[in-house]
Amino acid sequence: VATANGVLSPTVKLSNGVAMPRIGLGLAGLTEEQSRVAVRMGLEMGYRLLDTAAEKAIWYQNERIVGQEIARFAERNAEGRGLFVTTKIHPEDLGTAATEAALESAYRNLQRQPIDLVLLHYPRCWPELCARDPEGTWLDSWRVLEAHYKAGRIRALGVCNFAL
What we know:
By secondary structure, the protein is α/β, with parallel strands linked by helices.
């Protein structure tokens, strides 16, 4: 649903009170150039939630491009600061030190802090997904996300692709 200013606006409140747009632009499976065009067009069309992931994920090669396009958009639009960005920690980066490094990379790539939502992408590795075994578990990584959340560097955290 677009508002008078053309922004897709309905939101949902997460359990911690953070408002997240219900409609977002997923960027999996796109080349660098396709990602650049998709982010530009999506922002112009009113999308305010962008979903990306660590660049080592085979379906996402665009976390850095998302950051560049957000910065470009924010230079021209006051509402650029109101974007909601989701990224994900690759399962190769499960473990304390690896997750810390992945988060620092995400802050640099996305050129933003805090990041609105950081998800653990998968609870484990398997051969087609990971080139190496992780140093730790998803629980180790979750503790790192909690610390970054408490420090104000992440606004919300969660998991995806976890079987319940």
